[in-house]
Amino acid sequence: MSLSAALKSGDVTLLPGKRDEDWKWTDLRGLLRVLPATAPALDLAGLAEGPFDALADQRHVVAGGHENVAIDVPAGSERAVALRVLSRDGGALAGKVTINVGPGAKLRLLESYEGDASAYVTDTAIIFVLEAGAAVERVVLAADGAEGVNVSQAQVTLSPGSEYSQTVITNGARRQRIETQVTHPGAEAKLRLDGLYLLEDKRHADLTTVVLHQGVDGATDQFTRGVVRDQARGIFQGRIVVEEGADRTEARMRHNALILSDKAEIDAKPELLIFADDVQCAHGNTIGALDEEALFYMRQRGLPEAEARALLIEAFVGAVADRIGFEPVRDIARAWAADRLRA
Amino acid sequence: MAAVKQTIEHVESLEKYQHGFVTDIAQDFAPKGLNADIVRFISAKKDEPEWMLAWRLDAFERWLAMDEPEWAKVHFPRIDYQDSYYYAAPSQKKGPASLDEVDPEILAVYEKLGIPLKEQAVLAGVEGAPRYAVDAVFDSVSVVTTFKKELAQVGVIFCSMSEAIREHPELVKKYLGSVVPVSDNYYACLNAAVFSDGSFVYVPPGVRCPMELSTYFRINAENSGQFERTLIIADKGSYVSYLEGCTAPMRDENQLHAAVVELVVMDDAEIKYSTVQNWYPGDPVTGKGGIYNFVTKRADCRGDRSKVSWTQVETGSAITWKYPSCILRGEGSVGEFYSIAITNGRQQADTGTKMIHLGANTRSRVISKGISAGKSSNTYRGLVSAHPKAKGARNFTQCDSLLIGKTCAAHTVPYIEARNGSCVFEHEATTTKLSEDQLFYAMQRGLSQEEAVQLLVNGFVKDVLQELPMEFAVEAQKLVAISLEGSVG
Coiled-coil region(s) at which residues (chain B) (predicted)? Predict the structure, then answer.
């Protein structure tokens, strides 16, 4: 059951749907009765610059005719790579990206999903392998079109002493799922998985993570925030599995969401599956409206209500962007979020 | 400290499952297996009216078309539903008019269980002491109901389900299956077809039930599944507290228990439903022989400002599959769920609650404490949802898991669905082992390791124990200790 299998075979019955537990809130089978034709090859010459191109020393594009990308960061080296996934003209795109980060190497991956206004269907599989002591900071900016369907699934394999940090920022699509699965060996490897969704109209975004702790001394820190308005729907599914023997694991998961309309919806499933005893695991989940008392306080100080609301939301959202390590990217993320909120 | 000491003494006195004895009483069995004729047999045995039989047969038809659910985190060999008895009634000469007429062997069983059937006499001289009405279910048929008269004076109906079907068909027809529909789930549907007996409570408008009502269940006949059906209706402005406690004898073959409990709460009414469950958990090493406890419990807060509070202490059963739920339909209705689930040995528990907010300003609170030890698995699975009309819905959920030992598992699987802009949902969960520092501190003060663990565990579950009626709380605390026996060191 996966979108990539359905795209490969053209068989819509292979699409995941409501009856699949992990896809119950992101029903693709009910949505897609037919799959579009494969996207035609895209001419990369004369392509407008992507949001992160200026910050990167290597640029890659996944688009029609350019389905496969391989990124290799040799041992001890450092790279800043911009990866763009371009969805156009109502076509179907099945992209595959493999990323190897050698021992002690550092990769800054700046990923953007850019969709037009058509009803495209895009599936991207990204395979990360981090060797011992490697470090990856991945920032995903998902700017899909309102009619697009976009599924991105990353498989991350960590090695001892490696470090992986991720921030996903999205404003959703018709159906969108950004999924990250991490195999965590423990052994002082560090993992940070953050997410931010800002949804309006009828947009839908699903941030799903699965972390598998397989060895002792692992740490995971997850922080996701979201704001939904209109008839939008935000989904957070986080699963942390601590396997037998993976002692001294420390895992934290937080999801906070603001729901600003009576027709909007937020669904959350923060799961902890623990098979070891010497662990510290916790998750917190809150869903609610803006704090009326804080609003009152600000209005009392002379701020107009609209501005007070905007400030509160901006502060709420800013907490995720603040955790991005690389400052220029942090600024881009903040500006992008501010644009979405003001719209 | 007294409670701890008592607990320790209890554990020491305990070499094996205390309630693991089998009483030999003449049994009246339906033949093994399940088909429409067995359903008819059960209905005929119980002298039921035609409409009840039709209801059962309809449920049986639907059950045949259903599949057994497989989503829970529990594993067990497939149940052969044809290899079980669906009706077993202790044979009696006549219907008992008083306690004296009850089979003395049955009374002896109750005595071993420590059920206060004769509490009337004990409490006679004590003014203002809490009183309990016991509707004892011995296998499948309610044997005796005490305190009926006093309850009748205030208009409270408290009787067995079979009696209610005969005496109060209008109430049963109106409410039975209205909270848990016949085809709600596989086990509830099976229950609807073959349910044996259970309790029926109706509290009329404005009445505060003068005593706590209680039912003790006990599975006795070998190989006989027990299918209770409980229905409690609290009419406008009424209040009732209902206690349910369970023990079962030791045996080798797995026993299926698929009960259905329906609560209906009208305007300004309140039901407090407490359960202590310590059915035979199976052999601690092989897991063989324990009870399968597949229960559907649901409360429908139909009235405005109605309230339901579920409190459960689940320490027994090989497998527990149970999600006491609240449908918060009435404006300003309140649902509460307090749970302690303890698994040891090879036990598996998948339990939690559903809080479905439909009405405006509904509130719910979920406190769940799971403890796993041995090779057991303990899952909290819960749903909190607010529908678009549930303006101002409020939920607080706290589920904490405690792990004792290297081979146990604790899972937390909450589902949260918010569909309007004015609800506030908060959820927090933690999973940890017993704190080494606290253990060290307690042992440094002279407690043995076992005592120290019990002290810390008691502290861990305190929030839930507080919600239990006094008598149950003491029993529950003992149970917590017994359940964790031998899990440390």
Answer: none
Position A223 scores a pLDDT of 96
Binned at pLDDT 50, 70 and 90, residue B361 comes out as very high
Burial class for B357, CB neighbours closer than 10 Å (0-12, 13-18, 19+): buried
Residue B489 lies in a domain: no
* Predicted-assembly ipTM surpassing the 0.90 threshold: no
B427, HSE (Cβ side, Cα atoms, 13 Å): 29
Q: Cβ of A286 and B406 within 8 Å?
A: no
- B289 token code pair: 């022989």
Per the CB < 8 Å rule, is A244 touching B407? yes
Residue type, B42: I
> A140 with A166: CB under 8 angstroms?
yes
**CB contact burial B26-39 (16+ within 10 A = b; e otherwise):** ebeebeeebeeebb
Q: Does B435 touch chain A (CB under 8 A)?
A: no
The answer to the question of residue B488 being in a domain is no
What residues in A contact B361, CB-CB < 8 Å?
Answer: none
Q: What is the pLDDT of residue B28?
A: 65
- Domain residue spans in chain A? 36-290
Minimum distance, in Å, between the CA of residue B463 and any CA atom of chain A: 19
Structural contact between residues B461 and B467, judged by C-beta atoms closer than 8 angstroms: no
Token couple for A192: 């940070």
Best interface-test mutation with A: which of B366, B404, B431, B439 has the largest number of A CBs within 10 A? B431
Whether the Cβ atoms of residue B416 and residue B387 lie closer than 8 Å to each other = no
Instruction: Tell me the β-bridge partners of B413.
Output: B381
**Spatial CB neighbours of B48, under 8 Å, sequence gap ≥ 6:** B162, B165, B166
**Among the listed residues B379, B446, B375, the one whose alpha carbon sits nearest the alpha carbon of residue B404:** B375
Rg (CA), chain A: 20
Domain carrying residue B218: 2-483
The predicted model gives A132-150 an average pLDDT of 95
